[in-house]
Each structure stands twice: as structure tokens, then as C-alpha cells.
Design brief:
This protein is mostly helical. It contains 18 helices and three strands. The chain has helices at about 25-40, 50-60, 80-85, 90-100, 100-115, 120-130, 145-160, 165-185, 185-195, 205-225, 225-245, 250-265, 265-280, 285-305, 315-335, 340-380, 410-420, 440-450, and strands at about 385-390, 430, 475. It has a three-stranded parallel sheet with strand order 2-1-3. α17 (about 410-420) links the parallel β1 and β2. α2 (about 50-60) crosses α17 (about 410-420) and α6 packs antiparallel against α15.
Length: about 475
């Protein structure tokens, strides 16, 4: 029905499973896995930062996956925590399981590409996707392309594999393709660039299959386009109209972005330099053209969407796109060049050491923030207050060049942390200013907590949250 196996045959290239992993590749891959695993356990509470706490709150309260904006791979970050919920595990244990979500997926996919597909290059590339260029984003490990990037590597490992039955292979190719392109618009961009990199049009039947899947996915996405996504496209359009494109290439801006890159993404920039030099040396004109074109497009789009170059968690999530693209190009295009593999291993080892040291150093600020929130929770309990507004302001400033302070006290984080003492100990704390304390502010807050991004539980007798109905009080 699908034609002969040769018609759908594996691509030929660096990702082809033609060799065994060296001991250094295995050691580096498992060292990377060990790092992200230990980090996830030690900093489980800190990794509830920002959107993470919101998603975990919904999973725990509903006992189901929480999917928004049509991003169907979000359950990959939730499934193990959801198992913990249905097993009735304590909330503290569920927090750890939630933090380990990316680690469990990484180990599963790594063993799949190594043992089933026999592809050590894909395995190392997969692990590198979890630590290269990432520090602050480690504390909000639910951003979609973090998972999409892993599946992107698996997708290409499947394209280069001949070790599975044809129908199984095509099914997995289709599923991983849809999950990656639906993960984020930038995930779709990287996927299309990578397909151009390997000249997918040389394989007509595969090209037709992927084109049909892309059209179906885009049609569904555009039809059900969320306010968040439409607003993002509108912002890009507005800045294009107001400023045009050329402002992103102003000398001062280019210098500022370069300095930020050197400070915050030295490993990504070193890998990008290595990839460029190796492709020039190998006279890989096509590879260099597609790679540089991709970086150019990403720089323009990211600059238009988020002009602020101040570094923070969200900045890293956006900048993860060129990082993932660089790591993928290293795997697809560079690792097969003579003498390049050893250089890549050295750079990745340096990157891992850098990320271990810098991430744990930065983590001290996140730990101070969690400890402060727990102090405020204990203070509220001591006053007998279950629902409060907090006027106290603390600034938690991470180290680094031009880094934004950490976000203020986050109500979903407080809710989850307070639930660790049991459902009857749940405390709600909302940060406000004195100007917000208008007559009727308590009822106004109740309405606000029903909005997207908060959506607090409401049951007075939930499994993990016994929500109070008392009036909000000022936490003095």
C-alpha cells in the first residue's frame, strides 16, 4: 500500500546507524542525563517557577492532562505527575515527579534511539538538547519546544533508520512530525529548515506524506488559533509596520545582542562557530547556507516578537530555538566530518561543565525566592489567615549581565507549596500594591483568579486543595 521499502527507504547521512557508540560518547551522554536528573530532584520546588506551577495546579486539581493552545505534546511534561495524582501520592512527591518529567522522557527516547534504532549520534544530540544554552529555562521546564526538540531528534533518527518495520516507522515518523510542528511556531520553523537541510524533496513519497500532515496541522491550528498566539502574530505585525525590519540590524543592537550571547550562551556560540568552520572546511555550501539562513530568520523573528534583550527565563525560551537548531545541525551535518566528532565531544563536555556550574550558581537566587515564599506561607498560617494579599516586595536578582529580577510572588506556586502540609493547610497569597486595595477588592480578586494563567481550584473539599471562601486579608 505504501510502496516498496526502498521507496520509503532511510536517508543517507551522519544520522545513519552505521557504527557503535564510543565509550566517550556514552560517558558524555550519561553524564548529561545524570546532571538533568540530579538538578530536577534537588531543585524540584524551584522548577515550579512561572507557568510550571500553573500547569501542575491544573493537573493535580483536575486529575487530567491540561492542554492549551493546541500544543499536543504538553502531556509529555505531565504524565508522570498525573500518575502520582491517581496513586494518591503526597503533593511533595508529585512536585518531584513533575520536575522529573523531562528526565523520564529523555531516558526513554535515548534508550530508544540507541538500542532500537542503533544511532549513537542521535543519542548524543538528544541529550545535548537538554543542557546546551539553558540555565534560567531549567526552572520552568514545561516550555513546549524543550520537548519538541527531543522529538525532532527522534524524528530524524527514524528517517535515517532501517531497523523498524515499514508501517511502524512511518507511523512514528508521522506522530513525531505532528508533535514537533504543533509544539510551537518556532518548532515548525526548525523542522522545515532541517528538512531542507537534508533535501527531503529527494524522497518524493516522504515529502508528500509530510506535506499533507503539515497542511492538516496548520489548518487545524489556524482554525482554532488562540488569543495568545494571535496576539503574538499581531505584535510582530505591529512592529514591522512601525519600525520595519532593518532596525534589528542597527549596529548598537547587534553589538548588544552579541555581548548578551557571549555572556549567556557561550556554549551555543562555540558550537555555532565550530559548525560554521567545519562546513566551510568540508565545502558544505548547502549546509552552511541553510544553517545561516535559519539563524538569520530566527534572529529577525525573535527580535520582532520580543525586542527586549534583558535576560530572563522567557528570553532563554525564545533563544532556545537557535540553540536547538545549532545542536541539530551539529548532529546532522558536522559529526560525520573527518576529525570533527572529537572536537564536538570536547565542546559538549565543556558546555556540560559550564551549565552544571552556572546553573547551580544561579539556582541560589531561585532557592532564596522559594524560601521567602515558604516564610510568607508560615507567617500567614501563624496569623490564622487562609487567603491574603501581600504588599511586601522583595527583589531577587540573579547573577549575570543585564538579567531581569525574578518574577514576584506567584499565587499558583504558593498554592502548591502550601499544599505540601496537607489540603487543610492550603494558603492563597496574592501580591498587590496598596493602590489595589480599593473597596470590594476581595470580590475583584476572586474574579481575577478565575482568569487564564491562574484559574485557581474552587472546591472546599478537593483531593489536594481545600479552598477557603473567607475574605482576602492584608498580610501585615
Amino acid at each position: 500500500m505504501f510502496g516498496s521499502t526502498n521507496s520509503w527507504g532511510p536517508l543517507i547521512g551522519t544520522f545513519s546507524a552505521e557504527r557503535q557508540a564510543t565509550k566517550w560518547e556514552r560517558a558524555l551522554a550519561w553524564a548529561g542525563i545524570l546532571f538533568v536528573a540530579v538538578f530536577a530532584i534537588v531543585y524540584a520546588k524551584e522548577r515550579l517557577y512561572a507557568d510550571s506551577a500553573y500547569f501542575l495546579t491544573q493537573v493535580v486539581d483536575d486529575g487530567n492532562f491540561h492542554i492549551i493552545n493546541g500544543r499536543w505534546l504538553i502531556p509529555l511534561s505531565q504524565w508522570i505527575a498525573l500518575i502520582g495524582v491517581h496513586l494518591g501520592l503526597p503533593i511533595g512527591t508529585i512536585i518531584i515527579l513533575f520536575s522529573l518529567g523531562n528526565v523520564f522522557l529523555l531516558v526513554t527516547l535515548y534508550l530508544f534511539v540507541i538500542r532500537v534504532l542503533g544511532n549513537p549520534t542521535a543519542g548524543l544530540t538528544l541529550v545535548a538538547m537538554q543542557f546546551v544554552g539553558i540555565t534560567h529555562a531549567l526552572f520552568c521546564p514545561i516550555f513546549e519546544f524543550y520537548y519538541g526538540a527531543m522529538l525532532l531528534v527522534v524524528f530524524f533518527a527514524l528517517l535515517y533508520s532501517a531497523g523498524l518495520p515499514l508501517l511502524v516507522r512511518l507511523t512514528l515518523i508521522s506522530v513525531t512530525f505532528v508533535l514537533v510542528v504543533s509544539s510551537h511556531f518556532m518548532g515548525m520553523l526548525v523542522m522545515l529548515l532541517a528538512l531542507a537541510l537534508v533535501r527531503i524533496w529527494k524522497y518524493p513519497k516522504l515529502s508528500i506524506l509530510l506535506t499533507v500532515l503539515l497542511i492538516v496541522q496548520l489548518s487545524h491550528r489556524l482554525y482554532f488559533l488562540s488569543y495568545y498566539e494571535s496576539h503574538a502574530f499581531e505584535n510582530i505585525g505591529i512592529r514591522m509596520d512601525l519600525w520595519g525590519v532593518f532596525w534589528v540590524f542597527a549596529p548598537g543592537r547587534l553589538l548588544g545582542q552579541f555581548l548578551q550571547g557571549i555572556w549567556h550562551y557561550p556554549d551555543t556560540m562555540l558550537l555555532a562557530f565550530l559548525a560554521t568552520v567545519m562546513m566551510i572546511r568540508n565545502k558544505d555550501v548547502w549546509g552552511l547556507f541553510v544553517y545561516s539562513s535559519g539563524l538569520f530568520a530566527m534572529y529577525v523573528l525573535i527580535s520582532l516578537f520580543f525586542p527586549d534583550a534583558t535576560h530572563d527565563r522567557y528570553r532563554e525560551i525564545l533563544d532556545y530555538t537557535p540553540t536547538a537548531w545549532t545542536v541539530l545541525v551539529i548532529g546532522l551535518r558536522v559529526m560525520g566530518i573527518a576529525n570533527a566528532r572529537d572536537l564536538v565531544l570536547v565542546v559538549l563536555a565543556i558546555s556540560l561543565c559550564f551549565r552544571i556550574g552556572w546553573s547551580t550558581y544561579v539556582a541560589r537566587t531561585y532557592t532564596e525566592r522559594v524560601e521567602w515564599m515558604e516564610e510568607r506561607i508560615a507567617f500567614a498560617r501563624g496569623k490564622g489567615i487562609r487567603r491574603s494579599v501581600d504588599l511586601e516586595r522583595r527583589t531577587f536578582q540573579p547573577p549575570g549581565r543585564i538579567v531581569a529580577p525574578l518574577a514576584k510572588l506567584n499565587p499558583p506556586e504558593v498554592l502548591i507549596l502550601s499544599a505540601c502540609q496537607g489540603p487543610d493547610s492550603v494558603v492563597t497569597i496574592v501580591p498587590l500594591t496598596s493602590d489595589d486595595l480599593i473597596p470590594g477588592y476581595s470580590a475583584w480578586l476572586d474574579e481575577q483568579l478565575k482568569q487564564f494563567g491562574t484559574e485557581f481550584p474552587t472546591s472546599a473539599n478537593g483531593k489536594y486543595f481545600h479552598m477557603s471562601k473567607e475574605e482576602f486579608q492584608v498580610l501585615q
